[in-house]
Amino acid sequence: MTSIHRRSLMLLCLAALGAAGMFLGPDGWFGIDIGPVGATVLYFALCLFAVHQSKHAEEAFPEDASYAERQAWVATAFVSLIYIHWLNFLTMLPDLGAVVDQISNPASRRFAINAGMTILVWTVVAGVLRSGNKDAVELDERDLRVQHDATRAGSALLAVIIIGLITALAMLPDLMSRWLRPLIVANALVGLLIAKTLSENMYTVVRYRRGRP
Amino acid sequence: MSEPSVRNEIRRWRQENPAMTQAELARICGVTRQTIIALEAEKYSPSLELAFRLARALGRNLEEVFRFAEK
């Protein structure tokens, strides 16, 4: 392991610690709310990681990884983070009581800030990758074929999840009725879209990995 | 990814011309270098259009570069 890899790993560990603090939230650690501190540490570590990786882009990814594959890796990482934010947000909703039926509530504000920050850092990292791309061609027919297959895989997964939810509604009405409130359902639909995007990116990464000599 | 039934001799013909690097062939054909790497490793079957472009760039007939492998 080179010093570049060690520094990358340290920054990712710091980001993971920040994420853990952020998800503990109020009363998470001896009654102390370390959520905002955790979020700050997470995004500070991610920004440092982005700058570090941009300086050593050739070390950050396999040498034979194309621009599209690198972007797919980055997208998988950031969409995973957004999905974790969303899962955390969704589990808080049923306990909010009447506040949950208001569009602006503490949980949704927190999710919006976290998701917004993640997208901001993602945009910076994607821009750094684009500026470092030495190939004249960003996407070719192989990349487009992988993207097409990934979209099909994502749509198939979406259909399976929707059928699963409908079945759960029919089979477990008492359990599911707790979640049947307009804004929770709306947020669940947002989550489905995030899950679809995540599955597409994961499929893309796996396809590139398997297609490597 | 399933095993391609189209085999190719891209690497062989490319190495006959020392100036024809993977990057150069990719530039001529309008694809990424990683696609040339995948093609040479027979991990990817090109479209008919790309197959023609590759054959032309290598100065060969299509049949000299690609052949259909019966499974």
Describe this structure in words.
The complex is a heterodimer of chains A (213) and B (71). Helix content of chain A is 77%, strand content 0%. Chain A has 213 residues and is mainly alpha-helical. Chain B is mainly alpha-helical and 71 residues long. Chain B has a two-stranded antiparallel ribbon with strand order 1-2. The longest helix of chain B is centred in the last third of the chain and has 11 residues, at 48-58. Chain A binds chain B through residues 64-69, 135-137, 140-143, 207, 210-213, and chain B through 1, 26-27, 30-35, 37-38, 40-41, 43-44, 46-47, 50.
The total of helices of chain B stands at 5
Oligomer: heterodimer
Strand order of the largest sheet of chain B: 1-2
Q: What does the average pLDDT of chain B come to? A: 89
Beta-sheet strand percentage of chain A?
under 5%
The helix/strand order of chain A is HHHHHHHH
Question: How are the elements arranged and paired?
Answer:
The complex is a heterodimer of chains A (213) and B (71).
Chain A: H1 3-24, H2 35-55, H3 57-60, H4 67-92, H5 106-131, H6 141-171, H7 173-177, H8 182-210
Helix pairs in contact in A: 1-2, 2-5, 4-5, 4-8, 6-8
Chain B: E1 6-8, H1 10-15, H2 22-29, H3 33-40, H4 48-58, H5 62-65, E2 66-68
Antiparallel strand pairs in B: 1-2
Summarize this structure briefly.
The complex is a heterodimer of chains A (213) and B (71). Helices cover 77% and strands 0% of the residues of chain A. With 213 residues, chain A is mainly α.
